[in-house]
């Protein structure tokens, strides 16, 4: 049985420099991405501050490496050092501590994948491309760019600005004070993350011989690795330690709302572009008729809700269970527990 976990949320980040793209002269520029925005005059493209999926993926895999080591699960030397080059060829795989012999007699693509997966949880969950034998393992988790929500863009509630700083080099230096600028961004960001829990520890069909099952690691090992992946996701969101330049540009952050969805088929939770994104997710799941569990946290428009008694909460349907919880981490925890419970039952 397939078990998937999908998370989306709305996170406010003020004065952040988490993902810088380039330096132009003495200005370090924030990463920007084009977004199509619908207006009364039609569609237009705006360039907005963004945080790349690569930046977020690096942070998640760093947590995964730490959790796996704590649980006594295998992690290769490179991933243990948070260098996620992965096993891209025989030379790199050997440097990272893998025992792979591509010249061995009758060694197949699935044999190589199995060896790498057995020896590193991060490469199991995060995927790799071994170019010497064209062995591809697709990542079991997906994460996208953090972009400002569409409703905040329509209101113009986003921005980036170069902030001036001074580096003092000492009076004896020819240039005692050096001016430089760091561009910081502020926005209500969209966050999206999905994890194919039941695919962890399973080998990829594209590497197997035609007509043969690819195989998988023992059920108990797969369950422990899935648990590590779920714990890493909770730490990733709980610590909020993703991105760069945090030593002097640690952002002021707040999670406005978040949903964590467990499904029995591949599914992506609706992004938090508007405040009713959780409702849209529930309606989509009910239309699909798929068994699912939705845990959500919402503190937006808190003042308006306090003025009303008995605010109606979201309701699911026969196949979809919906539960409102008290914090965003509780939503992630409950969804993780449900996903692991389903995986245990499917053994």
Automatic annotation (TrEMBL):
- Is Nucleotidyltransferase among the key words of this record? no
Q: Which GO terms describe its biological process?
A: defense response to virus
Q: Does the keyword Transferase apply?
A: no
Keyword annotations for this protein?
A: Antiviral defense
Q: Which residues cross the membrane?
A: none
Function according to Swiss-Prot or TrEMBL: CRISPR (clustered regularly interspaced short palindromic repeat) is an adaptive immune system that provides protection against mobile genetic elements (viruses, transposable elements and conjugative plasmids). CRISPR clusters contain spacers, sequences complementary to antecedent mobile elements, and target invading nucleic acids. CRISPR clusters are transcribed and processed into CRISPR RNA (crRNA).
Protein name from the UniProt record: CRISPR-associated autoregulator, DevR family
What species does this protein belong to?
Answer: Ignicoccus hospitalis (strain KIN4/I / DSM 18386 / JCM 14125)
What lineage is this protein's organism placed in? Archaea, Thermoproteota, Thermoprotei, Desulfurococcales, Desulfurococcaceae
